[in-house]
Amino acid sequence: MEAAAYSKSNAEKNPKERKLAAACPYLPDEIWEIIFKFLNDGDTNCYLEPLSIVSKQFLSITNRLQFSIAISDETIPFLDRLFQRFPNLRSLDLSKARNVNLLLGHNEYFPLGIKSLNISNKGDLDADVLVVLSKKMKNLTSLTCSRMICMLKSDLFFIADCFPLLEELDLSYPMNISQYDFIPDDDDDREPLALPKLRKINLSGNCIKEYRQFITYLFKNCKLLEEVITKDMISMDEADSDSGSDSNNDSDIDIYSDIDNDSDRSSDDDGNDA
C-alpha cells in the first residue's frame, strides 16, 4: 500500500507518464507491451506500478506483464482477486506467508501456470501442503525450500514424487542439521531419484554423510544435472556411530565450501580433521 501511494504521489508530481500516454493514444497494446517490457526491471516490477496508475489501458497492460508475486498472510484473503488481476503469473513466493492452513483454504484460486515456487521459512516440510500444491502446479520447474527447520533425504524423494518436472531445486541452509539427515543406504541403488529434468540443486548448509557417494548418486540418477551447490556443507566422516562422540566434534566433521567436481581432494583433508 505504501509503495502504491508513493507511486501515485510521484505520478502526480511528475506527470511525464500521463503526457506520454496522451501523446500516443493511437498506439496498440502490443506496442505498449514492448515498451513496458523494455522499461521493466526484471522480477522487481518497480516500473510497472507507477505506469499502472496512468490510465485504464496501462493498468490492463501492466497486469498482463506481472509474472511474479509474493504472498503474505495479509494478502491471502484476497488471492482470488490477485490471481484474476494478474492472469499471467509464473512465479509464486510464499516464503512470507506463515498461516499455512489459511493459505491451503484458498488453494482453489492458485493459477495452473505456475513454474516457480518459493515455500521457504515454513518450519518442517509439510507433506499435505506439497500434495495440495502439486495438484495445482503440475508443471513446476523450480522449487525453493530454503531455511526450513530440517531437511532429510526422504524429503528430497517426496519432493520428486510431487514435482517430477523440476529443473532447479533449492534445499539450502536448514535450521537444524544432524549426521542422520542424508545417510546413504542399500536402497539407493534400487530406488532412483525421479527427477529426470533436474539441472541444478542447492544443498548448501546441509549435513551429508559420505557426501561423495551421495553426489555421485545424484549425477547417476539425474542425467541432465549440471550443478550441485554445496557451500558451507557439513560432511560426516565414517565414524563409529556408537562411539558416543559429539556430532559437532571436529574429528567427525569436514566443512567444504564447494565440491566443484574436485576429484583431487586428497585424504589429507580428512587427516587434518584428526
Automatic annotation (TrEMBL):
InterPro entries: LRR_dom_sf. This is Uncharacterized protein. Gene3D superfamilies: Ribonuclease Inhibitor. It comes from Medicago truncatula (Barrel medic). GO terms for biological process: SCF-dependent proteasomal ubiquitin-dependent protein catabolic process. Residues 237-274 are annotated as: Disordered. Residues 237-261 have a biased composition (Acidic residues). GO terms for cellular component: SCF ubiquitin ligase complex. It comes from the Eukaryota.
